[in-house]
């Protein structure tokens, strides 16, 4: 195998290949037929034959065989032009060059093609009756404080309208789930996450809430608003070309953990949010959309835990939701049934 140093010098690469051939002759395939589009042995057949003969890993072979099959079918179905192929290559090259640690254009592209949501659906099947899941997105952090139920997650001065979230964690039998932790993270009233502020000193609008022994919990905070995904790169151009916008519907992210239960990562959306039906990353499942109410009685604000002068805008948004978790065993049963079905 040529070293990195050798790869930079064509003369050294040639020498390395000749040296290698002195010790081992790679397996070759007899070229018995030309592969032509108008024959019964196309380039697709030849690529698949080559991989089948040489690839040692069964899963790699399965994935690439299917990928080649679909890619070639796509090119034939659309009669892909060379100019379109060149444009696609330039687009993907740009996606690679413009990706950073904080903005991966390939992940964004996968999200906007609905692939991320599909892979999540395939990998986290839920028994009927359980809360649906969705992707966590890029704004989760590990440093959120662990807090008792009833805490406030918003630091004083956080932009936005007051909100209280009142929830419970139950199982499929309707029983309270014990020792549940609800990891919450959300944007503020400007649609901005704390880590997007350059002067962030400590976590804001996020926390790990410990549920009460009966599975109930609440937290006070700020009503999040819609925000755009990064659209200054190729993924933004992709959305624009398709007549789509980059704005995510308002939402709160949750990850729920409890002993014996399958971990759930999801997000909830208020029904009044714009962009629910045109969410760019296809995470707005209908079952996750919640109808909020408003509390305008200032006496009730104190009962809900808000301090004097804390409520702004003359109302508190009340957001209620009952999460339903499957046990680990119930999820394994769904996975086994699905695997069985895919073999048939
Ligand atoms: Fe988000």
TrEMBL record:
<dbReference type="Pfam" id="PF00775">
    <property type="entry name" value="Dioxygenase_C"/>
</dbReference>
<dbReference type="InterPro" id="IPR050770">
    <property type="entry name" value="Intradiol_RC_Dioxygenase"/>
</dbReference>
<feature type="domain" description="Intradiol ring-cleavage dioxygenases">
    <location>
        <begin position="165"/>
        <end position="193"/>
    </location>
</feature>
<dbReference type="GO" id="GO:0018576">
    <property type="term" value="F:catechol 1,2-dioxygenase activity"/>
</dbReference>
<dbReference type="InterPro" id="IPR000627">
    <property type="entry name" value="Intradiol_dOase_C"/>
</dbReference>
<keyword id="KW-0479">Metal-binding</keyword>
<comment type="similarity">
    <text>Belongs to the intradiol ring-cleavage dioxygenase family.</text>
</comment>
<dbReference type="InterPro" id="IPR007535">
    <property type="entry name" value="Catechol_dOase_N"/>
</dbReference>
<keyword id="KW-0560">Oxidoreductase</keyword>
<dbReference type="Pfam" id="PF04444">
    <property type="entry name" value="Dioxygenase_N"/>
</dbReference>
<dbReference type="GO" id="GO:0008199">
    <property type="term" value="F:ferric iron binding"/>
</dbReference>
<dbReference type="InterPro" id="IPR015889">
    <property type="entry name" value="Intradiol_dOase_core"/>
</dbReference>
<dbReference type="GO" id="GO:0009712">
    <property type="term" value="P:catechol-containing compound metabolic process"/>
</dbReference>
<keyword id="KW-0223">Dioxygenase</keyword>
<keyword id="KW-0408">Iron</keyword>
<protein>
    <submittedName>
        <fullName>Aromatic compound dioxygenase</fullName>
    </submittedName>
</protein>
């Amino acid at each position: 195998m040529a070293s990195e140093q050798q790869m930079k010098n064509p003369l050294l690469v040639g020498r390395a290949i000749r040296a290698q051939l002195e010790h081992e002759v790679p397996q070759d395939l007899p070229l018995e037929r030309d592969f032509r589009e108008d024959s019964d042995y196309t380039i697709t057949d030849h690529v698949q034959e080559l991989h089948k003969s040489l690839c040692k890993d069964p899963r790699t072979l399965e994935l690439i065989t299917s990928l080649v099959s679909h890619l070639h079918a796509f090119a034939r179905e659309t009669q892909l032009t060379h100019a379109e192929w060149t444009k696609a290559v330039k687009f993907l090259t740009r996606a690679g060059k413009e990706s950073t640690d904080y903005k991966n254009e390939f992940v964004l592209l996968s999200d906007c093609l609905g692939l991320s949501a599909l892979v999540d659906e395939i990998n986290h099947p839920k028994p009927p009756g359980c809360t649906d899941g969705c992707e966590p997105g890029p704004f989760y952090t590990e440093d959120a404080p662990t807090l008792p139920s009833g805490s406030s997650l918003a630091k004083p001065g956080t932009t936005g309208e007051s909100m209280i979230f009142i929830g419970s964690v139950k199982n499929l039998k309707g029983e309270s789930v014990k020792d549940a932790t609800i990891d919450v993270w959300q944007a503020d009233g400007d649609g901005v996450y704390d880590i997007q502020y350059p002067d962030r000193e400590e976590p804001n609008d996020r926390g790990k809430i410990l549920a009460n022994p009966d599975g109930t919990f609440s937290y006070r905070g700020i009503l999040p608003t819609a925000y755009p995904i990064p659209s200054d790169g190729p993924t933004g151009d992709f959305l624009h070309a398709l007549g789509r916008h980059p704005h995510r519907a308002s939402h709160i992210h949750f990850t729920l953990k409890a002993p014996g239960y399958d971990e759930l990562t999801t997000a909830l959306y208020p029904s009044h949010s714009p962009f629910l039906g045109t969410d760019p990353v296809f995470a707005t499942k209908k079952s996750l959309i919640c109808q909020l109410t408003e509390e305008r009685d200032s006496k009730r604000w104190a009962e809900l835990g808000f301090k004097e002068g804390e409520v702004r805008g003359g109302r508190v948004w009340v957001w209620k939701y009952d999460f339903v978790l499957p046990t680990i065993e119930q999820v394994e049963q769904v996975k086994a049934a699905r695997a069985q079905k895919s073999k048939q």
